[in-house]
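seq:
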Amino acid sequence: MSERSSPEHKQSCKKRMAELRDEVLFAQPQLSHRGECPICCLPVPLDAAKSHMMACCSKHICSGCNYKNHMREMEQRLQPKCPFGRKPAPKSQAEADQDNLKRVNANDPFAIAEMGKCCRDAGDYEGAVKYFKKAAELGNVNAHHELAVFYDTGMFYHKGGGVVEKNHKKFVYHLEEASIGGHALARCDLGGVEKMKGNTERMMKHYMIAAKQGDPPALDVVKVGYSMGHVSKEDLASTLREHQAAVDATKSAQREEADAFFARAAERGAFR
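struct:
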């Protein structure tokens, strides 16, 4: 038996592969999976309600830039247009769907993932999985998290026969891919997986990474971990600093103005 085919060598290779995977998995992402607003170039907040994907170009525009563009158009009585691509805004949902379909046909991973969400919400789970798989193959981080949910629940989504079978290995794989791409919720889900295994150290590592991305629930878990002796004082301090820095990085006077406007509109009963 050659040295490379020996059980010891295979075990050593497997251990090294796991170590290399962990190096990638536990690296702090530079940005969340939401990326930066292409107009103001500031990180997009984790809160999905504070950004909007434009159907014509699949760009996620922050609420501040959307608000400023909308106010400018109203003041100057201009035709509503996409803040980024400057294409006239769709006049109906059907028009918006057609714009998104064009992006899907152009292999835009964000548009493909959005199509997957539309299928999921309409109860077409087979179509949803198909689009999410394609978007994930093209590098869409959120699609990985959507697939993780399917593989975790399996038959729950389609009692008539199942779109995907419950598969823990694929569930964890897609959570890891989403986490590496900066998906804070997927990172917290991974923390939950490690908790079930009793791996407290790995669990807290995941929550600290998510907290440093600006995720409030993850920060709460880290604080509890500190009170229980699972997180050091130094790690808590660095997590608190980086959490605040991540939150501050998403702030701007323009976004605060938009938040205040939408809050007033909500009080009046207007739709955002």
